[in-house]
Amino acid sequence: MECERCHQRPATVHVTQIVNGDKRTMRLCEECAREIQVGTMGFFPQIDFHNFLSGLLHEFGFPTGPAVVTAGARCGACGLTEERFARQGLLGCGECYRYFGPRLEPVLRRIHGNTRHMGKVPERTGGKMRLKNRLERLKAELQAAVSREEFERAAELRDRIRELEKQLQEG
Amino acid sequence: MPIKDIVSNPHSPWMDGTGPEADIVISSRVRVARNLAGLPFPHMLNQIRAEEVIRAVQAAINGREFRQKVGHMELIRMKDLTPVERQVLVEKHLISPDLLESYEHKAVAISADEVLSVMINEEDHLRLQCLLPGFQLQRAWELVSRLDDGLEATLDYAFDEKLGYLTACPTNVGTGLRASVMLHLPGLVLVDQVKSVLGTITKFGLTVRGLYGEGTEAKGNLFQVSNQITLGQTEEDIMANLVSVTRQLLAQERAAREALYRERKDQLEDRVGRAYGLLKHARMMTSEEAIRLLSDLRLGIDLGIIKNIPAPLVIELMVLTRPAFLVKVVGKELSPVERDVYRAQLIRKKLSAAQQT
Ligand SMILES: [Zn+2]
Ligand SMILES: [Zn+2]
Are B34 and B148 in contact (CB under 8 A)? Predict the structure, then answer.
């Protein structure tokens, strides 16, 4: 019988492996058997990333089986269920991050050690986002100024807020 | 170069052997994941909406501003390529194998110089890629970022202020960035240190995998090292980390090669000479054997043991002798035995042509 892996040398060894939770026995030549065993020594951590992720999701309380779907356990935008997410490791749409947000946070923290984006912001739409951020800050400052009765400062801030709002509306 | 030519040309600029540290860093790649706002991710898309994504990208790359900023890119649907041509794009590292699965509504856009590509409807709507020869991560990031800006000029991305670029898999969210280097590490393999050296780099948030072989093997001593974390760091930080770890690996590989040459010169020269002899004279060769011998030959070239073969030819041969490419070159389906015969023939021809020039 020939080796199941290289189909060249005769099979002389039986090797049992656990792949995705299934036990598999292969008849291999010595060379292939050695290569396979060397390969499992553990510096390839991403071999089955989806399995790893779905294990992680279960650990954080995402359902393991096709459980009864409760309200809120489904993305309101795309309809992805928690159960399907836990099984596939894939979210269904951008809104999923909002629907599953609080439950996703510890998962993200475990994967990335962090939950806040620090990198690039889209050039065009991100510009609007930066304006929005500045607008929020100005509005907070305005409230503070009014409560301190700094009316001159408040008037100044109102002008800048109006200007920013105009910019935002014009896109 | 039109895509129909790209799939028949074995050469790609990333195999040039140019760029810094090209004796060990074969290529540098930066990929970013992007999704369009308001559309479910590809695995939740029906056919009509998947087509929408392709059409949106087509419109974006046709725009005048995009062409000025990024240059010309050609888009082709996977279903318009033959199975062999699709496989060739994988073997040239221009697309990922995932793009071949249920490819009905998947597509790719490639720049004429093959440096930039955009995979459409893979795991995410868009996967932007830049692939350069040698150790050029920073440059690759600049080019991808410009491509990104060019597309974003007309496309609305799914972006969240707190979480960054939203991706189908939460392991990619944030920057959506995967930066990687392809390293040829025969020295570390020969001195039996590759496992301990590569094992330590996972502590730096990086992962390693063998380039050829099923998951765990590294045939041809080619390894791909990439970042694992995408959220909470800037793109620059992610790349700086990969760059500094790669520099360490380079130093270790060089030290291993020097030690081998110093202490086991005869064995090393014998190994290289045997590989060269087999490659020049064998009449049948499996792809596994070819990759292994080509790695030895490449080491011999890098160490100056073999002088008349240009180093980039070795990488080109590694790609050229992959199964799909061979079929493309020969122009017909091949039985396993025929494949081994053609492979050996092709290597002989290329090596003797290189010697004569
Ligand atoms: Zn075997
Ligand atoms: Zn959703």
Answer: yes
Higher pLDDT, residue B257 or A61: B257
Angle between helices B265-281 and B287-302 (to 10 degrees): 130
DSSP bridge partners of B73: B111
Judging by DSSP bridges, how do beta strands B177-184 and B159-160 pair with one another?
A: unpaired
Please state, as a whole number, how many other Cβ atoms lie within 10 Å of the Cβ of residue A144: 13
Phi-psi region of A22 (alpha: psi -120 to 50; beta: other; left: phi over 0): beta
Range with the largest mean pLDDT of A69-78, A140-149, B26-35, B80-89 = B26-35
Residues with Cβ within 8 Å of B100's Cβ and at least 6 positions away in sequence, in order, are B78, B86, B87, B90
Best mutation target among A8, A18, A43 (most B Cβ atoms within 10 Å) is A43
pLDDT at residue number A62:
72
Mean pLDDT of B207-217: 68
The shortest CB-CB distance from A43 to any of B44, B175, B199 is to B199
Tokens of A159: 């002008």
Domain count along chain B:
2
pLDDT at B166 over 90: yes
Q: So what's the pLDDT on residue A38?
A: 42
Residues B163 and B247 in one domain: yes
As a whole number of Å, the end-to-end CA separation of chain A is 71
Residues of chain A positioned with their CB less than 8 A from the CB of B211:
none
State residue B335's pLDDT score.
Answer: 87
Res B90 pLDDT > 60: yes
Same domain, B154 and B302: no
B305 in the same domain as B252: no
Expressed as residue numbers, the domain containing B320 is: 265-356
Minimum Cα–Cα distance from A91: chain B residue:
B168
The answer to whether A90 and B118 have CB atoms below 8 angstroms apart is no
- Both B127 and B166 in a single domain? yes
For residues B54 and B19, membership in a common domain is answered with: yes
Choose the final residue of a domain: B256, B289, B319: B256
pLDDT in tens, A42-68: 333 333 455 566 666 776 777 654 444
Distance in angstroms (rounded) separating the CA atoms of residues B43 and B124: 8
Interface test with A, best of B30, B52, B173, B285 (most A CBs within 10 A): B173
The model carries a pTM of 0.80
Regarding an ipTM greater than 0.90, the answer is no
Average pLDDT, rounded, for chain B: 91
| Helix H or strand E segment including B310 | none
A93/B231 touch (CB, cutoff 8 Å), yes or no: no
The residue written with tokens 């490449």 in the block is B298
Q: B101 touching A, CB under 8 A?
A: no
